[in-house]
UniProtKB/TrEMBL annotation:
Source organism of this protein record: Microbulbifer halophilus
Positions of transmembrane segments: none
CDD domains registered for this protein in UniProt: ALP
Signal peptide: 1-17
Keyword Signal: yes
Highest rank taxon of the organism: Bacteria
Ranges in coiled-coil conformation: none
Family matches, as Pfam families: Alk_phosphatase (PF00245)
Record protein name field: Alkaline phosphatase
Keywords: Phosphoprotein, Signal
Amino acid sequence: MKFLNSVLALGVATTIAACSESGASTAETRTAPPALSTDQRNSTWYRDAQSRLQQASQRQIDNTPGAAKNIILFVGDGMGISTVTAARILAGQQQGRTGEEYQLSFEQMPFAGLIKTYNTNQQTSDSAGTASALMTGVKTKAGVLNVDETVARGDCKAGLEHPLTTALDLAELHGKRTGIISTARITHATPASTYAKVPERGWEYQAPEGCRDIAAQLVEMDRGDGIDVILGGGRRAFIPQSVTDLEGEKGKRTDGRNLVQEWKNRYGAAATYIEDEKGFKAVDAAKTDKLLGLFQPSHMRYESDRENDKAGEPSLSEMTAKGLELVQKGEDGYFMLVEGGRIDHGHHAGNAYNALTDAVEFAKAVQVAMDNTSTEDTLIIVTADHSHAFTMAGYPTRGNPILGKVIGNDEHGAPQDAPQLAADGKPYTTLGYANGAGFADLGDETNSDARRDAPAHSGRVDLTEIDTTKPGFYQESLVPTGSETHGGEDVGIWARGPGSHLLTGTNEQNYVFHVMVRSGGLLD
Ligand SMILES: [Zn+2]
């Protein structure tokens, strides 16, 4: 402190001398900079920032390679920056606050940065190319999983010749326990990026002669002893067309194989297969070594729609808690991927309600991991694969409902008592989409997939009589497209634990793999 003071004093003296010499000012006429007023110092903004600064300046950095015995990678599918901001406000408002000041679980992590998400052949990326970048350390084309960029999409032979090894492969080869958890189909791009190598992400249950489909690659995985915990949707890719599941839907496999049975045969008594909430609740972690849970024929339900499920299914945070219990059984650490898979689907439907409520649940799942791991030996990374054409705009007053219409401030900065009107005389929402199927009002409908049956409607609508905060409200869009698209701007990355400081700055998406490998000692 003494040293710092003397440096400052020297700096001031030098400045004054320089000014005198130039004749622009003299030491005698200069007044000292005004001290901070008591009001300024006592402001909660001032005090909160001071305590934040105190914490940040005491931060210890563990730079030792291999110090992260455990790694958990959280991917919010489609969780761009505007989604994080809006989800943060929604979460805060659900707790009765104004919302803007709230912090989601991962926003409390010490390190954050930006990630560039483009694919080798696409400016705005898809989830297969981006997930491959995260998991293998090299970027590749859109639509392919863990084959390099020389492979043409859909080229079976070239795909077999150019496979890429994943971080999960490396963790298995190190004898670590592994887990993959998603609210999407477990054969969908992000979860599949941990284990599958295919030149076409659509080969979830069927592939051309000579190539293996994604579901088959999962149950046959030969790195280590295969993945220990698998929880998500996508049951239909594992059962033949001749079999009807407990929710009344037929399987999709045309080769007659029942991969659930094959998986059970492979692992025997220590393995548990579950497909509903009851089965999930009954899992005894102490007695279960391998766990396969397929809770839906296709994707799992949106969090806001979960109670409508026939057979019942766990939430993302519940699956994360269970997954952790199981992977933490090993001596040699673990690697786990957790995906909030349906944030993306809510956005594609043009429904901010489900995108945001799923993002809030995703943040809850991260909290579970933060509460049940140590910053000493566990690297937790939270990021998104890509963004969406989702905007937060207008000048709503502080605390305005994030899903509401824009109510602004008057000329004195106080909130007005009615929504503002655009140049067309109609009110407008804070949240909107640059493209997509646009406006629809499905009232209390909590399943965004229902939007597919309603007509597309680009452009403006008179929202005066419509409650835009309801689950079934679909925001207006400018450019009419069947489905709202991904966004090409950077996404955020947040991290804590050994090596987390390496994820600051602006980096290419494939860099994340390199941090995981160094921090986890996965190539040592
Ligand atoms: Zn998407």
